[in-house]
Amino acid sequence: MAIRKVRVIGDEILNKQCKPVKEMNARTAELIDDMFETMYEENGAGLAAPQVGILRQIVTIDVEDGNQYVLINPEIVEMSGEQTGYEGCLSVPGKTGIVTRPNHVKVRALNEKMEPYELVGEGLLARAICHECDHLKGKLYVSMVEGELEDVDAADEEESEE
Ligand code: ZN
Asked: Record-annotated residues binding Fe cation (predicted)?
């Protein structure tokens, strides 16, 4: 396992559409392990493959609910409700901003064994799923911020970096 370099805003790879994963292989399995290691090292709640320079539809999430989620080729199939709160991103270091997201989402994805499953998320998990799935479409949360991007120190300490 290895910590990978996190790409930051301004790097054009963050604005590109990611391709689906067709099969699991040793290289992709290693990428997923590295994504978790990188995410924990950087104190993030989620990471998408393009953030480490790989244009594949892979997301890792850990919102400290006791689970490590791997979403391969995710597709959000249900959204409802609304939540408004601070959001951050490892690719936008030192910044945070207010984003409105659905409070409930259901996502269909493959796990690390390429088995299909569905994940239902509420609150922070729903926010993380939306944020990371946006990365796979080349979209950063900064395009959705209500008002100004703020420096992290000036914001609520509960903001999370995704
Ligand atoms: Zn992000």
From this structure: 89, 131, 135
Catalytic residue among 64, 82, 87, 132: 132
State in Å: Cα 132 to ligand 1 middle.
Answer: 6
Helices (H) and strands (E) in the chain, counts: 2, 8
Model confidence pLDDT, tens digit, residues 138-154: 999 999 999 999 999 75
pLDDT number for residue 157: 55
Task: Using the mean position of ligand 1's atoms as its centre, give its distance from the Cα of residue 44 in Å.
Answer: 9
What is the number of other CB atoms lying within 10 angstroms of the CB of residue 90?
Answer: 22
pTM confidence score: 0.93
Q: Is 104 annotated as a binding residue?
A: no
Percent of the chain with pLDDT over 70: 94
- The yes-or-no answer on residue 158 being catalytic is no
**66 Cβ contact list (under 8 Å, min separation 6):** none
